[in-house]
């Protein structure tokens, strides 16, 4: 699978990066770039119904924990290898501790403001969201050890 999204840590020419960007799913979503460190985001080009499948994620590869990876178990991460990424993705639903915490841009009334991972959020906050099995188990371990 060709990689169509260059994961630039620092964007110094957002216009040039956008011009070189080739979306994997035109018309569904696109990456919006701004100059600065880790300053891009995935934006939907249309509304999606709750529970609707947006697209298949194929061609993932195992990799180390990094700011670009997605945690899929207590000790495994994958790279998505495309521009399919966040779309209002609640990172703590799969990430115990972010490799590169960042400020959230979602604008939700219940926004957590700083995305650091499930480890740093209360049981009450985490109960609002669907979370993966490995995160649920980690939350239970954390809460059991602090009781």
TrEMBL record:
<protein>
    <recommendedName>
        <fullName>SET domain-containing protein</fullName>
    </recommendedName>
</protein>
<dbReference type="InterPro" id="IPR053201">
    <property type="entry name" value="Flavunoidine_N-MTase"/>
</dbReference>
<dbReference type="InterPro" id="IPR046341">
    <property type="entry name" value="SET_dom_sf"/>
</dbReference>
